[in-house]
Amino acid sequence: MIGRDAGRGRFLLIGLPWLWLGVFFLLPFLVVLRMALSDSAQARPPYRPVFDLSDGLSATLDKIAALDLENFRLLWEEPLYLDAFLTSFRLAAATTVLLILIGYPLAHAMARAPARLRPILVALVILPFWTSFLIRVYAWIGILKPEGLLNMMLRQTGLISEPLEILNTEAAILIGLVYAYLPFMVLPLYAALERLDATLIEAATDLGAPRWKAFWLVTVPLSLPGVLAGSFLVFIPALGEFVIPDLLGGSDTLMMGRSLWVEFFNNRDWPLASAVAVVLLVIVMGPIMAHHAFETRRAEAERRGGRS
Amino acid sequence: MILDSPSRSSRSAPAIGAVRRDFAPWKDPGAVPLIRYEGVRKRFGATAAVDGVDLSVFEREFFCLLGPSGCGKTTLMRMLGGFETPDEGRVTLAGRDLSGVPPHLRPVNMMFQSYALFPHMTVAGNVAFGLKQDGLPRTEIAARVDAVLDTVQMRGLADRKPDALSGGQKQRVALARALVKRPKVLLLDEPLGALDKRLREETQYELMDLQVALGITFLMVTHDQDEAMTMADRIAIMDEGRIVQVGTPAEIYEAPADRGVAAFLGDVTIFEGVVQGRDGEGWTVASEPAGCVLRVGEAAGVAPGTAVGVAIRPEKLRIVAEGDPAPANVMDGEVWDIGYLGDWTIYRVKLASGLIVRVSQANAARFVERPVGWEDRVRIGFDPASAVVLTA
Question: Could you give the CA distance from residue B46 to residue B295 in angstroms, rounded to a whole number?
């Protein structure tokens, strides 16, 4: 009796997350995927499904075999979309690199601060979340616009005579992305660095390494999982970011998130928008799965105790 | 109770306790210490961690700082590694003032209490780390790593990561990593603290053999008195940032400087009393808790009327069987508790004054004709030379 109850309990425990994933991820994804394979149409909803399970299984399979993947081909052939993707990729990558450069020293200083100060510092990093994201991005418009706060200050100090054109450029998007995603980089880095045993650094200096070398040979490699986690947390949402490029980047900048929005709402081309969404997901899945495989292999190697 | 004085050689003087080796540079007035602490002080906030320490450690010595946690022993040792800087005073190594010398430039290595092995490097990588910092050629590094791993019997596991090692194996790697650079001094911070009892004992003797074989000076910190007694040539007892007594394990055990040291190191019963007068070679002490006048041996700084403590170790007391010749000091009491340990039996005997005295007896024979039982009336006694007279 007890065994069967325990078995059912375990089944529930494992089953619930799977159920959640199935209902809220897999099912919507399949809907979007089917939409991406369909043709646009003047209808409501504005697309004609390519297949329907009510046709029967063999008819559905026939139709799937006959798919033309027209929307995906369009994404590949039309330079507009390729550009949007490359811009997104470039900006997300630049954001990630900048955030590592800014976030690492910040997280390191936080982790080395006196223990009683650390919770306050963490709270300060999280504090911006208490204000609406949208309002904070709007605030950046106020700072970056030609007659904005930044230009005013720079002109008053005499550093420039003409206002800098920052708003509606890629630089503005980059500033906005770096600002918005800073906590997502700092927090995993802080977690990794705070956990790091300070006596390891002492041991390294004791064995003849100057402090900078001890940092490079011990702290950096041991905090790499934190760097990796932070990079994923930043890179993935930055790739599909819509609000920041829309508000700070102006109408010229095309990023994937914006193209998706434009196709969906302005052009009412749901299938093409869905295709963009599917491509975005696949692109993002790649690095995640690579990371996962890497981590699994490392854990396995450590368990076996062999060279990794 | 006669201590070896510096003028006499250790051979001719009646030594107390076990003399491990013919090695006693601290008795040689001409010997120059390798490590010297001079008037060292260190405060952390309002508390003085190290409060005016003068200490000399000689080359090839196995020296131990012993004391309760928070007594400043670790801080004192870390000053030699360069991880703490003294507020006052200075630390010298082989005559060189270490003030301002960063840890990576000091010819000492430390074995950390937590071992502090680099988790992202293999055993061989950990051991090679220090040699790589010195920029040695790769072939020499490999040879020295292999050699030191042979010494600690860890060569077969050179490719393992620290996470895949047992506690005892980690301890060996930490030791190898600290030894491979052939430091002038090896610092050991509670080196055996994380091992279980049996392994600890085994490792103690291995460490001692290794120290003699390598001829490296060891400075060890521990709170475990058995560990200190077993391994060290000399021990410094620390309390509240000060050094209370420095001496060989036998000197400290048999001639403690004060009541604190006597009680900290091993078991002891202290009979408080007042010196009455001379008695042959020694003194007589009237002790109320003992309920009699005790005869004790020679004691310095004592005159009639001095308040003293007569300290006696459990193994130097014995239960006097009926018909046996009685020692000079005898007291009557009642057996209050018996602890049978196998090799020893501990009797807690309550005197008429209420004082409970610990008496231990070696169980030399498997069976005793008439064993002492609970609540038995017994007579306990000791010889005058077995007791220590404490004035502090």
Answer: 46
Q: What CATH code would you report for B2-107+183-259?
A: 3.40.50.300
Interface size between A and B, measured as CB pairs under 8 A? 74
Q: ipTM surpassing 0.90, yes or no? A: no
The minimum CA-CA distance between A199 and chain B, rounded to whole Å, is: 6
pTM comes to 0.81
pLDDT value at A44 more than 80: no
| Chain B: residue whose CA lies nearest to A199 | B116
**Residue B46 structure tokens:** 């309002």
pLDDT tens sequence across B123-176: 999 999 999 999 999 999 999 999 999 999 999 999 999 999 999 999 999 999
Q: Do residues B180 and B23 touch, judged by C-beta distance below 8 A? A: no
Check B181 against A207: CB less than 8 A apart: yes
φ, ψ of residue B165 to 5 degrees: the values are -110, 155
Domains of chain A, first to last = 25-197+223-307 (1.10.3720.10)
- Write out chain A residues lying below 8 Å of B130, CB-based: 207-208
Q: How far apart are CA B245 and CA B263, in angstroms?
A: 13
Asked if the B267-390 domain carries CATH number 2.40.50.140, the reply is yes
Confidence of residue B11 (pLDDT cuts 50, 70, 90): very low
Contacts of B120 in chain A (CB under 8 A): 221-222
Q: Which chain B residues are closer than 8 Å to A200 by Cβ?
A: 116, 118
